[in-house]
Amino acid sequence: MTTTAPRTRRVIINTDAKNEADDQFAIVHALLSETLDVRGLIAAHFGDSRSATSMLDSRAEIDLLLGHLNMPGIRVENGAETALPDEGTAIDSSGARLIIEEAHRTDAGPLQIAFLGPLTDMAAALLIDPKIVETDTTVIWIGGPGYGNREPGARSEFNLRNDIAAANVVFRSGIRIWQVPQTSYVMSSVGYAELEEKVAPCGPLGEYLVRQLQEWNETWHPEPIEHRALGDSPAIGLMLNPTGGLFRTVPAPTFSAEGGLLPGGHHTVRVCEMYDFRYLLEDFYAKLRRFARTTDEEL
């Protein structure tokens, strides 16, 4: 029997795109995937430790990638410029309003929102409009610690510590959450040699993706390195192929001021403890090659 199910998934990507060098791979992968109906990209802040204008830096990077992809029609909105001041105060933004708008649509199927940085804009949307919880919306978050024992003195996970208040708002809300914690997303490394063989030859976009990754490592990494974890890409993988993740369901925690796990409420979170990264990388490589080939043919 011929299926009548929708052929695309409706998604939003919230990205601190200029924070590191892996958001770029995730954004490109999503936009080159025909089953993802990307309803918008939201530029997210990434604190002020690396930049005083981090959200605007993310917006500029998104615009640069869309230029490489020749996709000027993709909707882009700015998110909050900073973390929430507390768990009861929203920072309104066009990004938060996009989330509210898409969550309440009833004519386009479920909504999935990938958060590749802090949860600021999701928390703001929930504080502005708590009824989002009643919609068919799934938050896919790259962030937070794993659910095993933390090493004594370990720093809190980066995406979490950039807005702990926002994470608590979202995890206490009851909205559907798929979390890819640090212990999972760090297992997505790819080496320079592989990137130089499979990504760099794919036109100006491929060359840029590899160059900016190596430049980021040279600027910020304290030790010799020839690899990078593409830690944001599992969020796109879960949109494309949710069966590629190994999940367990745990009680949704509260996060301490130091980024540790505390008992939460009555809700749960679906934790992706492992993802099929071989599939994810090869799918990305193939789509990037196809894009480069098609672009060459059009010139």
Automatic annotation (TrEMBL):
It comes from the Bacteria. Gene3D superfamilies: Ribonucleoside hydrolase-like. Keywords: Glycosidase, Hydrolase. One of its GO terms (biological process) is purine nucleoside catabolic process. Residues 11-243 form the Inosine/uridine-preferring nucleoside hydrolase domain. GO terms for cellular component: cytosol. GO terms for molecular function: purine nucleosidase activity. PANTHER family: INOSINE-URIDINE PREFERRING NUCLEOSIDE HYDROLASE, URIDINE NUCLEOSIDASE. This is Nucleoside hydrolase.
